[in-house]
Model the fold of this input.
Amino acid sequence: MYWGALYGVKTHFKKSKGWTFVKTIPSSNSKILERILFKHKTSNTYLLADAYDGKYIKQTTIDFLQASSGANPEEITVNKQKLSFGGNPNLLAYVGHDGLMEFNLDIQLKPKNKEKRDAIMLACISKDYFKPYIEKTGVNPLVWSTGLMSPEAYTLQWAIDGWILNESNAEIRERAAKAYHTYQKCGMRGARRLLVTGY
Done:
């Protein structure tokens, strides 16, 4: 829904001064329509963005939650460098419609290891709907929402930029709120009520 729009992940990160488009990567997952790799310009941080077919939103949500628990690791080799994704990264993000508003999931979730993982969930009322599942994964909810929102990529980018700088959860949440206010003109008070960190 948001992938190719002006502020979709694909378009926004391609235009970002802080990120470089590396390449489009084929995916063996038929539910993924497009997979793109980006690299941060001043750090060795890679972002693998998967555009799921919207009709498979339930499986998309399951894949995100399982990865948040450390499951389903995936390795990609780029320029002889092995990059870890799936359940391996230190930061995972879900950006898009909150399908959990329409369905419940009957899945078993538990941390697969003791690695520290953070998660960003930019979707409407994601804190309420994702919380019962996220609590079981062992992931740290870095940024999620308390109300209806437009899950556009500037919020994700500003939050990731703070994460790369090893900022605190509160500082990263503040970055996300500033991004949302900058583009949505909703006021910082409203943006801070909308985007929160932790439980």
About this structure: The mean pLDDT is 95. The first helix runs from residue 9 to 15. Strands lie at 19-24, 32-40, 46-52, 74-78, 81-85, 91-95, 118-122, 140-145, 195-196.
